[in-house]
Amino acid sequence: MTTRTSKIRSRAVKLAKWVPVAAVLAETAIGSYWDLARITYVREAFDHLGYPMHFATTLGIAKAAALAAILTRGHPRTKEWAYAGLVFVYGGAAASHLAVGDGPDKWVTPALFAACTLAARAWLPDNPATAAGLTKLGALARRPQQA
Q1: CA-angle at 87, arms to 93 and 95, nearest 5°
Q2: Distances from the Cα of 45 to the Cαs of 4, 24, 41, 96, in angstroms?
């Protein structure tokens, strides 16, 4: 493989990694606004799923907080919690639609956003504190049990 081809491939991979990140950030920002504004679509969805409307306010605030945490420099643990919260939000939306018997047209999109959130988190640059914590956790998990 030539140097030029490897540079193009490297740039393409970097660009491809931004696709789920951009999708999650855009959906989170728009979803937060929609939840807080309680647009007709949100009211109808919440009525259909059986959720009270005050839950939309809670979700809107949580999404805005997650967005702020992800876009702010530093605080890697907060970013991890924000991504985890978004996985719960989108995974919970997919599970809610499945629970009421909705077809794939309703639950596939939130499931894809949950997957994009996991991918976005997995492709974050390694943080030394996070890497050290994961290494320590792995070392604890592999430690032999004493009899």
Answers
A1: 30
A2: 50, 20, 6, 10
Backbone angles phi, psi at 107, to 5 degrees: -100, -15
Assigned token pair, 94: 């997919």
Contacts of 119 (CB under 8 A, 6+ apart): 20
140, two tokens:
């604890």
Which tokens sit at 18? 């931004």
In angstroms, the Cα distances linking 5 to 1, 18, 92, 143 are: 6, 20, 42, 44
Q: Tell me the pLDDT band of 17, cut-offs 50, 70 and 90.
A: confident
Q: What is the pLDDT of residues 34-52, one digit of tens each?
A: 999 999 999 999 999 999 9
Structure tokens at 53: 């409307």
Distance of CA 146 to the CA centre of its chain: 39
Q: Which residue has the tokens 């290494």?
A: 135
Q: Using an 8 Å Cβ cutoff, are 76 and 127 in contact?
A: yes
134: phi then psi, degrees, rounded to nearest 5: -70, -35
d(C-alpha 107, C-alpha 103), whole Å: 7
